[in-house]
Write a structure and sequence with these properties.
Number of domains: 2
Strand order of the largest sheet: 6-7-8-3-9-10
Helix content: 25-40%
CATH superfamily of the largest domain: P-loop containing nucleotide triphosphate hydrolases
Shape: globular
Order of helices and strands: EEEHEEHEHHHEHEHEEHH
Number of helices: 9
Structural class: alpha/beta
Pfam family, one: ABC_tran
Number of strands: 10
CATH architecture of the largest domain: 3-Layer(aba) Sandwich
GO molecular function: ATP binding; ATP hydrolysis activity
CATH topology of the largest domain: Rossmann fold
Organism: Desulfuromusa kysingii
Distance between the termini: 41 Å
Protein name: Phospholipid/cholesterol/gamma-HCH transport system ATP-binding protein
Keywords: ATP-binding, Nucleotide-binding, Transport
Radius of gyration: 18 Å
CATH class of the largest domain: Alpha Beta
Length: about 250
């Protein structure tokens, strides 16, 4: 089966400053894939490359076997439209209700009429446990609820791939665990492939099927595998320190 995502010899840089180089990995269809590493190693920058916001300095990103950048503008937009993104803070429009935040995508990218859009909005909010909060503004709900609302918006168009940037950041342990469970439920119900940037160990071990570890010194991947397997078998002290929070 063709990997859902395939990254070949990817180099990321801002001008002459190389962030990461020679990145090679694949993400299988339907798996939850973790991008991990210490602060400043380029995790979020890699995510921005994967969702098409940044163009690689070198290398290529293949989605369903199609190059994200060596293709037409129209084809790239089609590829990007089949993905959903949950940013760290939820990135909800503060002047819009939760329902309006979701409807914005539906209006822009679908031909659904108003009744159909409202049905989709209600369904997506129900999937994340927010069916009663359609008319609430982001400022009127908790941080954990804003994360879930952002997730509802991310799945509005039934994406094939979901990208999460530090989904548990700023959440208490209970809210974080509830979000982890929700991610697992959505993966199973939607059949989506999920890529997560995270440094939260509890979440990494709970949801991660496979992972890469980015090192800021060598500026490349120094470990690949299931998080639990890396914890048990890695001989690299940097990986063990990260996965055990030891120095």
């Amino acid at each position: 089966m063709t990997p859902h995502l395939e990254i070949n010899n990817l180099t990321m840089a801002y001008g002459d400053s190389v962030i990461q180089k020679n990145l090679n990995f694949t993400v299988k269809r339907g798996e939850i894939f973790i991008i991990m590493g210490g602060s400043g190693c380029g995790k979020s920058t890699l995510l921005r490359h994967l969702i098409g916001l940044l163009k690689p300095s070198e290398g290529e990103i293949l989605v369903n076997g199609v190059s994200l950048w060596n293709t037409s503008f129209e084809e790239r937009n089609k590829i990007i439209s089949r993905s959903g993104v949950l940013f760290q803070g939820g990135a909800l429009w503060s002047s819009m209700t939760l329902g309006e935040n979701i409807e914005l995508l539906l209006t822009e990218y679908t031909q659904l009429n108003n009744k159909q859009r409202q049905d989709v909005i209600s369904y997506k909010l129900s999937l994340v446990g927010l069916s009663r909060y359609k008319d609430y503004y982001p400022s009127e709900i908790s941080g954990g609820m804003r994360k879930r609302a952002g997730l509802a918006r991310a799945i509005a168009l039934d994406p094939e791939i979901l990208f999460f940037d530090e989904p548990s950041a700023g959440l208490d342990p209970v809210s974080s665990r509830l979000l982890d469970n929700l991610i697992l439920e959505l993966r199973d119900s939607l059949g989506a492939t999920i890529v997560i940037v995270s440094h939260e160990l509890a979440s990494i071990f709970t949801v991660g099927d496979n992972a890469i570890f980015l090192d800021p010194t060598e500026k490349t991947i120094i470990a690949t595998g299931a998080p639990k397997h890396l914890l048990e078998s890695s001989e690299d002290s940097r990986v063990i320190q990260f996965l055990t929070r030891t120095i």
